[in-house]
Write a structure and sequence with these properties.
214 residues; mainly alpha; two-stranded antiparallel sheet; 3% strand
Length: 214
């Protein structure tokens, strides 16, 4: 297909597609003439993946490039998923504060007890440590890491449900399987956070009643 059809199929504008091509987010098409190229279903899937990661998951172009580079270089699924996890959220913490280092020891012990990965460069781990250190400082001084058990158990249940909803995922063609796994990981994250926020909003409403009319 020509780039105009690729744009129509994906809902991504032609200038944006050309930007993705220049940045290496989309693989180059097959040249059909000096100034024209043909594109395939792989380009449709990749453009849709980039759009979802950009527009729905809110990832930066730099973070998306890290993910698609992993796909294009044929990295193992575990590595690609790890890079995706590390792309969700803020910047990597270069150095822990003393309070965060103290929290890290407890969090790593807790993660190990749950059989969860402990990668020093894991952004998810760093975010848990940083947040938990602040919880200790500002909300519940001296609270143990086991305080987080309900959150860990809820995440385990959600993950089990998501896996059960996609049987045979990794029987698919490898790149397609990885793309679907990445999308599931990135797109359900805001849904999970959104439900938690709405639940807190409802709790406040139940306790305090609706706001007074103007």
């Amino acid at each position: 297909m020509k780039i105009s059809e690729l744009s129509s199929r994906t809902g991504v504008s032609i200038p944006t597609l050309k930007f993705y091509l220049r940045e290496g987010l989309l693989p180059q098409g097959q040249l059909s003439s000096p100034n024209q190229a043909d594109y395939s279903e792989r380009h449709v899937r990749r453009a849709a993946l980039i759009r979802a990661l950009r527009d729905v998951a809110g990832l930066s172009i730099a973070k998306i490039k890290t993910i698609v580079d992993s796909l294009d270089h044929g990295e193992e699924l575990y590595e690609v998923i790890g890079r995706t996890v590390d792309s969700l959220g803020g910047a990597t913490i270069e150095e822990f504060t003393p309070a965060q280092r103290e929290a890290a020891a407890d969090i790593d012990r807790f993660l190990a007890s749950r059989g969860l990965p402990i990668r020093e460069d894991s952004l998810a781990r760093q975010q848990i440590i940083a947040a938990f250190a602040t919880v200790r400082e500002m909300l519940f001084p001296g609270v143990p890491a086991e305080f987080l058990m309900p959150y860990a158990e809820a995440a385990t249940q959600v993950t089990a449900m998501e896996r059960a909803a996609t049987p045979g995922l990794f029987d698919l063609e490898p790149e397609l399987a990885i793309e679907k796994a990445i999308l599931g990981l990135a797109l359900f994250e805001p849904i999970l956070v959104g439900f938690r926020r709405l639940s807190h909003e409802q709790r406040v409403h139940d306790l305090l009643g609706p706001p007074s009319p103007e």
